[in-house]
Amino acid sequence: MEYKQELITTIHDYGCHLDHLESRLLDLSHTFPTAVLIPALYDELERPALARIREHLKTCHFIQTVVVSLYAKTADQFARAVAFFDSLPQTVHIIWENGIRVTQLMQSLREKGLDLTTYRGKGIAVWLGLGLATLGAEAIALHDADILTYDRSYPLKLLYPLVEPEFGIAFNKAYYARIGGNPRCFHGRVVRLFVAPLLSSLNDMFGERDYLRYLRSYRYPLSGEFAMTRDLALNIRIPGNWGLEIGLLAEVYRNVAHKRIAQTDLGLFDHKHQVLGNSVGEGLQKMCRDILRSVLRTLTETEQVVISMEHIHALRVKFRREAQNFTRQYFMDARFNNLAYNRHEEETAIERFEEVIAHGGEQYSNDPITDQIPDWARALAVMPDFREQLLAASEADAAEVRAMASRYTLPQAV
Fold first, then answer.
1. What are the residue ranges of helices labelled H in 259-342?
2. Which of 6, 55, 138, 285 is most buried as measured by Cβ atoms within 10 A of its Cβ?
3. How much is the pLDDT for 344?
4. Does a cis peptide bond (omega within 30 degrees of 0) precede residue 368?
């Protein structure tokens, strides 16, 4: 048992009584409505994790709205998604993000001077979903669609700190232990073998900086599970690359006082795993490249640190040593807990990540600007009724295909 607190508030799980939390959240949600946002590819509907998520959401009476921001290649796929979520008791909005109606709506925004049509992937899915969710919700929890260990405690723990008026929290981030597989082993390579030694190395090189201290306070900075208030959702820029999670923390750093930020323990956690990749532009290496650029950019922006290629060379040397030190510690922790641990594979990943620093550092030096989707406040300045039009487009898409939904066999919960 530990009680450690950080620059941001850490909410531990000491065997909390979920029934008490749920009762309190249910009561508060009548005046402080809540929503859950799930960005998803259609492929997730054919895997067991999303069916499990759907079944647990059915028991979450403290959630009024579920928003699914979906990338589907065909109308048939979208129809299956509508049918898949029709059994939820909440109000459900499914945004067909690449459908004709939403595409035309984005084109209208472009014609008025704000072009978001070049953005792809999770970033634009989150942006669209947050905009629609803020129409009715005061607190919005976001999580991925591939969580194998999901249960109702996840949205409960994410949302409750935001709606409890005595807390004053505007942003709540999940942390957890990513352990799973057969045999059981550590997951989360990017956090363990890249982000942790990277932040430690930067701290050694540039000294104690508030931004670095802030990032190091998060126990799992890359978790895709977090919650925010309506006001923050409308006034935050969403990163448009694979560095979404770390880039979002930079936006929170700029917009929210430390005392209004929390992180909450979700316990053991497992979801789909990415491959390491064969080059800097693939898999986890691509993710690390975008994370590096985001961290360096924000460090320069907030701490006035000028980063040269000489710093990048020094960072590679520091990073390798710090990461190797971490592997020794992970090995002992794994052995003590009877977890499988392959030091060779860990060292191989570190070598790849070191190359990411070389390539990503040079890329940053040549072009320090990273992709960020403008906040909703700007979009609404261009088109004040954009959210309402987005809702109408989603409802029209669903109405058009709902009659087809009964033709499909839905994936079963696990």
1. 283-303, 309-336
2. 285
3. 94
4. no
User: What is the domain count for the chain?
Assistant: 1
Low-confidence residues of the chain: pLDDT under 70 = 1, 404-414
In a domain, 306, yes or no: no
CB 202, CB 297: distance < 8 Å:
no
Q: What confidence score (pLDDT) does residue 67 get?
A: 98
Q: What is the pLDDT of residue 271?
A: 83
Please tell me the predicted confidence (pLDDT) of residue 349: 96
Choose among 267, 269, 266: nearest CA to 181. 269
User: What is the per-residue pLDDT for 311?
Assistant: 95
Could you give the CA distance from residue 194 to residue 207 in angstroms, rounded to a whole number?
19
Please give the pLDDT value at position 414. 46
Do 54 and 88 meet the contact criterion of CB atoms below 8 Å apart?
yes
Looking at residue 273, its pLDDT comes to 79
What pLDDT is recorded for position 15?
Answer: 86
8 A C-beta contact, residue 102 and residue 132: no
33 cis-preceded (ω within 30 degrees of 0) = no
Q: Would you state the structure tokens that stand for residue 238, as one six-digit string? A: 């969403």
Q: Is 311 helix (H, G, I), strand (E, B) or coil?
A: helix
State both tokens at 265: 């323990």
- What is the model's pLDDT at position 81? 96
SS3 36: strand
Distance CA 53, CA 170 (A): 25
Which pLDDT belongs to residue 233? 98
Instruction: Return the structure tokens found at 254.
Output: 């700029």
The CA-CA-CA angle for residues 314, 364, 313, to 5°, reads: 15
At 242 the pLDDT is 82
Is 88 part of any domain? yes
Give the domain extent around 20: 1-167+375-407
**From residue 400, how far is each of 41, 103, 264, 392, 395 by CA, in Å?**
20, 16, 40, 12, 9
Q: What counts of helices (H) and strands (E) characterise the chain?
A: 16, 11
